[in-house]
Design brief:
Elements (H helix, E strand, L loop, with lengths): L14 H5 L23 E9 L3 E9 L2 E7 L11 E10 L7 E3 L7 E13 L3 H7 L1 E8 L3 E8 L8 E7 L13 H4 L12 H4 L20 E2 L9 E5 L9 E5 L4 E8 L2 E6 L10 H8 L5 E12 L2 E2 L1 H9 L6 E11 L2 E2 L5 H11 L7 E3 L7 H11 L3 E6 L7 E10 L2 E12 L7 E10 L2 E8 L5 H11 L3 E2 L10 H4 L9 E13 L1 E2 L5 E2 L2 E5 L32 E3 L4 E2 H19 L4 E5 L9 E3 L11 E3 L10 E3 L3 H9 L2 E6 L12 E8 L5 H17 L5 E4 L5 E6 L6 H18 L4 E2 L11 E4 L9 E2 L15 E2 L18 H6 L17 H7 L1
Parallel strand pairs: 11-21, 17-19, 40-41
Antiparallel strand pairs: 1-2, 1-6, 2-3, 3-4, 4-9, 5-6, 6-7, 7-8, 8-9, 10-18, 12-20, 13-14, 13-15, 15-16, 15-17, 17-18, 20-21, 22-23, 22-26, 23-24, 25-26, 26-29, 27-28, 30-31, 32-33, 32-36, 34-35, 36-42, 37-39, 37-41, 38-39, 38-43
Helix pairs in contact: 11-12
Cofactor: Mn(2+)
Protein name: DNA ligase (ATP)
Catalytic activity: ATP + (deoxyribonucleotide)n-3'-hydroxyl + 5'-phospho-(deoxyribonucleotide)m = (deoxyribonucleotide)n+m + AMP + diphosphate
């Protein structure tokens, strides 16, 4: 029986909506009995991306209890010159704004729907009059759309369709389509991947109107005794800047973490490791004690500013010398105050209280300032000023001891603590340290991290010698073999002197090598506030890719594929939109690139090494990685990917191994290439037969289209065997197929050997051989894309180039699950399979 909500009298504004749908079949929301206006006075808007018989965008504005709706075939555009057709369709219920899902076949609008954008809108003038007159001007506050927009009716009375035009009004948000295509730049659901308001991410002189400053909310405070001890909250290193959520952003201070415990006016200054440093800084303790409080726990960092920038070396000099008056205590959190435990109070409220406390503090106590600007812009500014990076903290987060995801640290430079495991003498003479031998902990073991030999003066060199000489020991303290002959080949025998791992150094460096060593390191100072046991390897620099709106493309109009008109701008924007998906398949893998400087109809050439035109951002690996060969290249970042695309790279092909274990492949690939006369159904059948045989051998395989004529079957491996063994297995596997089903398969290369058959290419499993990577475009007419798919999708595939540069990203925006989600954790052994094939 239908619910009362389903009963919609035919006279209501939603009658047309109801008549078109069977709510026993479709998951779309049924209209309510009574339409309601927004309770909070804000009018919502939504843009839904709808792939029905063709892709289009449904633009909806809440008004008078319904969603006024237009179907926009090409979607919205920030370029005022672009007038987009908008067909006025039936009103929808307000609940429809949150609908995502699949409308079943044979239902009106059958196909997939996602919420592409959402937010609030403000009419300019009277909206009812605007609808009647056929001219509606409004301002949007969305996650992708902002600024002034206009809808203008262009149809005449009696026309079959009520046609309007949607376009952007000229304001600070307007920008040419050649510079920014919001449809291609941001194709995904904002429910699956929320972005937050664009006006907060990228303010352009105006911000969304707020209802006044928020009141400090202390409802989560708990009456409790002052904790005797409190472990500080720690930040997680961010691989990239967050693009959604509400974050408080501060500068990452280059100093020592310091907590303050105040009990009845008595102050203790406590380091991150729990050491009492009150005696070291009596003046700071006195200024904390002068704050208007009785009992408290405060969190902050001490630093010394040089030219307005925190300077770690200056802080060390101040601590060791007489310049302690230069030390500033930057406070950034308040966990307890006057009988109330505030740790469950939202961060913004804790900081608001803290700001009141330090308003009239002494000259050496300051509030750590937060900044109202997009993290990407702040990160760029911090890097330019020479700051270490940023701290990003969830605005509504509680205070949680230990390392958390609600506090992130974004590093503009590679820098971290290292355990000092040994040293060498400067010039071979005792008295001054020439270099420090470094280590870090991983999996409970102390591992070699290389060395640092710069960053100190003669006085520091003598001080380091004085500290390290009493710690000297006969053997290396590492728990993992350091491969002495390779690691210390540049030093004379016996020059290294090992030390008990009791001291910690702060080190800045250019990069990690494939073997886990620091490269181009520079000593910044000793960390007397951190224990060696807590030193672990952190990741690399935080990636802050340039926003798509700022992506500059040289010669964007150049046609890459004459058969479709795909331009260089289309190709570069495709790779920009696919970066987060393709990079895991590219990172740390040597590659070959297919470049097409004159388009795919012109001359193509492979590039494997750095001797040709340089591409900024790509990593060139030293020649000793692969002896007697030029340096290999890898694409490890968004910048590198887009740099290659800018240099007319169409295809990316990768090795079956990574630079870390170059001689040990971690996958085996079977390339199914149909010969002349082979229909697509035979290729699908061949893939299924390959999967079946692999399954009988105890191996799980993953499937992707090649982007060309065939399919790729990929088997992930544990990197234990060398290339010869893996290639021999793949050859035996293919020969077995060809011998068992000779009418279907060929194991021999050459067009004449594969007529009417599927050639399974095992040669791609040799040392230095490459295969088109997942999501790579192909330099063929139509520009197909190699797309990971599930085995359940095999029967529905139409060709190996089913998705192209023009359609692949749109297809992916509707996919809720990654068919290769388990690929990375499925390392398998070939041992049993090799035995079974013999």
């Amino acid at each position: 029986m239908a619910s009362t909500r389903d009963r919609d009298p035919p006279s209501t504004p939603l009658s047309r909506y109801r008549k078109k749908r069977d709510f026993q079949v479709t998951p779309e929301p049924a209209p309510p009995v009574v339409s309601e206006s927004a309770a909070d006075g804000h009018l919502s808007f939504v843009v839904q991306k709808h792939w029905a018989s063709r892709l289009h965008y449904d633009f909806r504005l809440e008004f008078d209890g319904v969603l006024l709706s237009w179907a926009v075939p090409k979607g919205p555009c920030y370029d005022p010159k672009e007038k987009r057709m908008a067909i006025h369709v039936e009103d929808h219920p307000v609940d429809y704004a949150g609908f995502e899902g699949m409308i079943p076949a044979k239902q009106y609008g059958a196909g997939d729907v996602i919420v592409w954008d959402r937010g609030t809108w403000e009419p300019v003038g009277a909206p009812q009059e605007g609808m009647t007159a056929g001219k509606l001007v409004f301002r949007l506050h969305g996650e992708k759309l902002a600024g002034l927009w206009e809808l203008v009716r262009i149809s005449k009375p009696g026309d079959k369709q009520d046609q309007w035009m949607l376009f952007k009004k000229r304001d600070a948000w307007a920008q040419p389509l050649a510079d920014y295509d919001v449809i291609k730049a941001l194709p995904d659901s904002v429910i699956t991947k929320p972005l937050g308001l664009i006006e907060e991410r990228e303010p352009k002189g105006t911000r969304p109107v707020r209802s006044g400053a928020p009141q400090v909310d202390l409802s989560a405070a708990v009456t409790a005794a002052l904790p005797a001890k409190l472990e500080p909250q720690l930040a997680t290193l961010a691989a990239s800047l967050p693009t959604n959520g509400d974050w408080i952003t501060e500068a990452k201070l280059d100093g020592y973490r310091m907590l303050s415990r105040v009990a009845k006016g008595q102050v203790r200054l406590i380091t991150r490791g729990g050491h009492d440093w009150t005696a070291k800084f009596p003046e700071l303790a006195a200024e904390v004690g002068a704050l208007p409080l009785i009992s408290a726990w405060l969190d902050g960092e001490i630093a010394v500013l040089k030219n307005g920038i925190p300077n770690f070396a200056a802080l060390q000099d101040a601590i060791d010398g007489a310049a302690k008056q230069d030390i500033v205590y930057f406070l950034f959190d308040l966990m307890y105050l006057n009988g109330k435990d505030l740790r469950k109070v939202p961060l913004w409220a804790r900081r608001a209280l803290l700001a009141q406390l330090v308003e009239n503090a002494g000259e050496h106590i300051r509030l750590s300032q937060d900044f109202e600007a997009p993290p990407s812009r702040l990160f760029e500014a911090a890097s330019g000023l020479g700051l270490e990076g940023l701290m990003l903290k969830r605005r509504d987060a509680p205070y949680e001891s230990g390392r958390t995801q609600t506090w992130l640290k974004a590093k503009s430079r590679l820098r971290q603590e290292m355990v000092i495991c040994g040293f060498t003498a400067r010039g071979g003479k005792d008295g001054e340290v020439g270099s420090l031998l470094l280590g870090y902990h991983a999996d409970g073991k102390l591992r070699d991290a290389g060395s640092v030999g710069t960053g100190w003066d003669a006085r520091t060199a003598r001080d380091l010698w004085t500290r390290l000489k009493p710690l000297e020991m006969d053997t290396a303290p590492f728990d993992v073999d350091i491969a002495r002959s390779r690691r210390w080949s540049r030093r004379s025998a016996g020059s290294e002197r090992w030390a008990r791992p009791e001291l910690v150094a702060e080190v800045e460096f250019a990069d990690w090598t494939a073997d886990g060593l620091v490269r181009q390191a520079s000593f910044r100072g000793l960390r007397i506030d951190k224990p060696p046991s807590g030193v672990v390897r952190e990741g690399g620099k935080t990636q802050a890719p340039e926003p798509p709106s700022k992506l500059k493309i040289t010669h964007p109009e150049r046609v890459v594929d004459p058969s479709t008109g795909i331009t260089k701008a289309d190709l570069v924007r495709y790779y920009a939109s696919i970066a987060e998906r393709i990079l895991p398949h590219l990172k740390a893998r040597p590659l070959a690139m297919v470049r097409a400087p004159d388009g795919i109809a012109g001359q193509l050439f492979f590039q494997k090494h750095a001797e040709r035109t340089a591409m900024p951002g790509l990593t060139a690996h030293d020649g000793d990685l692969w002896p007697n060969h030029p340096p290999l290249l890898t694409v490890d970042t968004v910048d590198a990917l887009l740099s290659a695309a800018q240099m007319n790279v169409v295809e990316f092909h990768t090795w079956n191994s990574t630079v870390r274990r170059l001689d040990k492949p971690d996958r085996v690939i079977f390339d199914l290439d149909p010969g002349e006369g082979v229909k697509w159904g035979r290729v699908q059948e061949a893939a299924l037969l390959v999967q079946t045989l692999l399954s009988e051998l105890g191996l799980e395989a993953w499937l992707k289209t090649s982007g060309g004529k065939g399919l790729h079957v990929v088997v992930p491996l544990a990197p234990r065997l060398g290339y010869e063994a893996v290639k021999s297995f793949s050859q035996a596997f293919v020969r077995h197929l060809a011998k068992t089903i000779p009418e279907r398969f060929s194991a021999k290369a050459g067009a004449s050997n594969r007529v009417g058959k599927v050639y399974v290419d095992y040669l791609r499993n040799g040392m230095g051989q490459t295969t088109a990577v997942a999501f790579s475009a192909r330099a063929r007419a139509g520009m197909g894309v190699s797309m990971p798919v599930s085995w359940a999708q095999l029967n529905d595939l139409k060709s190996g180039a089913q998705w192209t540069v023009q359609t692949a990203r749109e297809y992916l925006s509707f996919q809720q699950q990654d068919p290769w989600a388990d690929y990375g954790s499925a390392a398998q052994s070939l041992a049993s399979a090799i035995k079974l094939l013999k």
